[in-house]
């Protein structure tokens, strides 16, 4: 697509990385500042009209709201008011698959701070996207070319 790519894991603060390396799951207090920083990156790219892909485990609905609206999304559930910066338009891609497939892929990763032991905590935290969120669900059980085609088709449809 020629879009700019960011891996959210690259933006975790050192404290979060250390916690995960020790097998301690992150909580909302750990994740919110990280998500706000990611929102700022997305906002900057949007302002410069740069299409962007962010790989991020935005596990909860609230986390996805923070990515769209920044810190203000935490304090309120109200729609944007006149004069507020407009929310970012984001298509969330929910990569869905059985834990054994994801575990097998995690085992192949080298040099990453999140150990396999934390996978269950991610499943426990997960709130799959639902209406009215802007999302698609893609099965990880499909071959990679099919996964990419499904995502690209959804992006191009807008």
Automatic annotation (TrEMBL):
GO terms for molecular function: ATP binding; gluconokinase activity. Belongs to the gluconokinase GntK/GntV family. It catalyses: D-gluconate + ATP = 6-phospho-D-gluconate + ADP + H(+). It comes from Agelaius phoeniceus. It is an enzyme of class 2 (transferase). SUPFAM superfamilies: P-loop containing nucleoside triphosphate hydrolases (SSF52540). This is Gluconokinase. Its EC number is 2.7.1.12. InterPro entries: P-loop_NTPase, Therm_gnt_kin. Keywords: ATP-binding, Kinase, Nucleotide-binding, Transferase. Pathway: Carbohydrate acid metabolism; D-gluconate degradation. One of its GO terms (cellular component) is cytoplasm. GO terms for biological process: carbohydrate metabolic process. Transmembrane segments: none annotated. It comes from the Eukaryota.
């Amino acid at each position: 697509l020629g879009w700019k790519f960011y891996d959210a894991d690259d933006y975790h603060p050192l404290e979060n990385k250390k916690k995960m390396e020790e097998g301690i799951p992150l909580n909302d207090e750990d994740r919110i500042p990280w998500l706000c920083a990611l929102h700022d990156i997305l906002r900057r790219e949007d302002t410069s009209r740069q299409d962007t892909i962010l790989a991020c485990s935005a596990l909860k609905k609230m986390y996805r709201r923070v990515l769209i609206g920044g810190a203000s999304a935490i304090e309120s559930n109200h729609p944007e008011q006149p004069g507020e910066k407009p929310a970012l338009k984001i298509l969330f891609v929910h990569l869905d698959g059985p834990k054994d497939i994801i575990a097998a892929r995690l085992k192949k990763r080298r040099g990453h701070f999140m150990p396999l032991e934390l996978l269950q905590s991610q499943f426990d935290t997960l709130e799959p996207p639902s209406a009215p969120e802007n999302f698609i669900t893609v099965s990880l059980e499909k071959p990679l070319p099919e996964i990419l085609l499904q995502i690209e088709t959804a992006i191009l449809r807008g």
